[in-house]
UniProtKB/TrEMBL annotation:
The chain crosses the membrane at residues 28-49, 69-91, 103-124, 151-173, 180-198, 204-224. Keywords: Membrane, Transmembrane, Transmembrane helix. This is DUF4386 family protein.
Amino acid sequence: MTSTTDQTAAPGAAPRTELTPGARFRRIGGGLSLLASGTLVFGSLLMIPYQNQTHAEYLQTGVDHTSNILWAAVPLHYGYLLLLPAALTLVHLARRGARKTSLAAMVLSGLGAGLSGIVVVDYYDVALANSLPADEALRIFELAGSYGQGALIAAPSMIGLAIGTNLAVFAAWRARAIPLLPLLLSVVGWLVFFFFSGDAWLPSVGTGLMALGLAWAGVIVLTMRDEVWDRI
């Protein structure tokens, strides 16, 4: 049998001290994505104080708050996009302590990234509400929503985003990389966001809690030493 010349595999060899190329960049980028993703989503919802218990109320929002919606879609798009690298950063923290959970979180978060593209539909809804009489705009809006194929795109993205993000936070907590409170803030925030989505302000409260939980994890990553990040 040929003896190995790889000193990193030899018993009693000194631990590796050099950093993996790009380790600091990934740590800082991941930490910033944790800080920015939830904050952008939270800020976007703050821009639109609307009631949307019914489709008619939703379309009326497009008339009453046209400029707000058009601008709010921009940070929402980038916030949703950044949730993917944010989740992958948490997956990195959990990859040794919660391997299977972090793998599931990575797959679901990847599906959730598709939600950022769906945001562009807001512009069509605003144009519809402002270009046609209310009854005609409502008829077309409901017709478009009746196409079941759309759910095959939207549902996996929404479910993947919410579950994938929270599963990544859970995996990082399970691996003892972050404390319990950021996990609780994220889970409660998403629950409030989804179950009270028709309220004027509760979705903003929910995303605010979620943003706080992710930002907490982001601060942990940003204050972590490069050597610790690299060997996790």
